[in-house]
Amino acid sequence: MEKLVITGGTPLKGSVKISGAKNAAVAILPATVLIKGKCHIENLPDISDIKLCCEILEYLGASVTYISGNEVEIDCTNINKTDVPFSMTKKFRASYYFIGALLSRFGKAEVGSPGGCNLGVRPIDQHIKGFEAMGAKVEIEGGIIKAYSPFGKLHGDNVYLDIVSVGATMNIMLSAVLADGTTVIENAAKEPHIVDLANFLNTMGANIKGAGTDVIKITGVESLNRSASYSIVPDQIEAGTFMIAAAASRGDVTITNCITTHLSPISAKLIEMGVSIEESDDGEQIRVYCPNRTTKANIKTLPYPGFPTDMQPQAAVLLSVSEGTSYLTESVWDSRFQYTEELKRMGANIRVEGKTACIEGVDHLNACPVNATDLRAGAAMIIAGIIAEGDTEIHSIEHIDRGYEKFEEKFQKLGAKIKRVMEEE
Ligand code: EPU
Fold first, then answer.
1. What is the DSSP letter of 344?
2. Which of 200, 246, 291, 333 is the most buried (most CB within 10 A)?
3. Which domain holds residue 113?
4. pTM for the structure as a whole
5. Of 122, 95, 121, 126, the residue nearest 110 (C-alpha)
């Protein structure tokens, strides 16, 4: 077991390169199941969730060759299994994309229930509604999701999502790619990773239109068998995390290999709080600098293009040291405020009532041992440690390793005093 130790008080300065998007990559790797041929995938983040995806592909019979930590060649021609055991799926959320992909290619899938961060109840009823609309029968038995198509191929249909869901949108897209006829997903999610999955599938010969809007139309094709290369979109949340870290530490950071339009909801809030933002003309770099204390803001998380829920804990750290009283409302997940107890021990003044946290800005945070209660909470603890007075220890950092590539190295390059050490017995 390892922990991070951070000596706070250094403003972050310099430039940082953003990795490929976790939440795009964890859907694109299962999507390779649909392709009888070689896929060359670049700009993959080197994180544990990606390794788990590749282990599942190998278990299914695919050949997976790592060219580097960020580049892989996958050949799913000889996949010969349609089940994924719970021991593999329980380790991360996105394992549920193997249901849509296996169902689409083989007409059946038996996939263990997904794991992932504890953010309250995480149902998959909308995924199932989509599969059933396309003719699949779905049962959940002993923690295994069993889906099969009694008449061979799935058939296209209209699916109206009752709730905007990233996972359901992508899973239904995967299951519809090889179906007979056309599937229309209404009230679809619009996140950049939805567009990235559609771009990947279209590169491989799928026929998907409207990704990035709330109506996505997928016309089934006979097969996807082109071998092709694809580069994963930059990670919006990693970029946003460094933006907030730059502002909170009153630093000056240039973030490269990002897509600035994906960052607009975050930039807009930071500007409102007094942070200076400069975007490069090519839309691939953003400079964030903030010599002065930020001021209060009210933030409500929403599906894209709203303020991302995956930036909510990081934003709470910044609001904790901003002047005035801020309100932070979570409207995507039932329970995403566990980390506030850790921040309170560092001196933050936060009161959570239902889905809203009322945050009274304090002068500074104080170091103390804290836990990374989930992935984004872990990122928030790092930012808190960087700005706190004294040495902060962060435990349970395996959550952070699931989703951020070489995170402490990137912070070290920006001047943060952060190191990874073994936990004492
Ligand atoms: N929901 C349902 N039924 C469903 C699916 C979702 O009620 O069938 C509800 C959820 O309970 C939640 C809301 O709909 O209240 C949105 O859930 P969504 O399906 O969009 O979330 P997800 O696909 O499980 C992905 C990301 C999360 C991110 C959310 C929202 C992946 C692997 N995970 O989860 O990322 O918070 O979208 O943007 O893509 C993270 O990266 O730290 C993370 C938690």
1. H
2. 246
3. 22-231
4. 0.97
5. 95
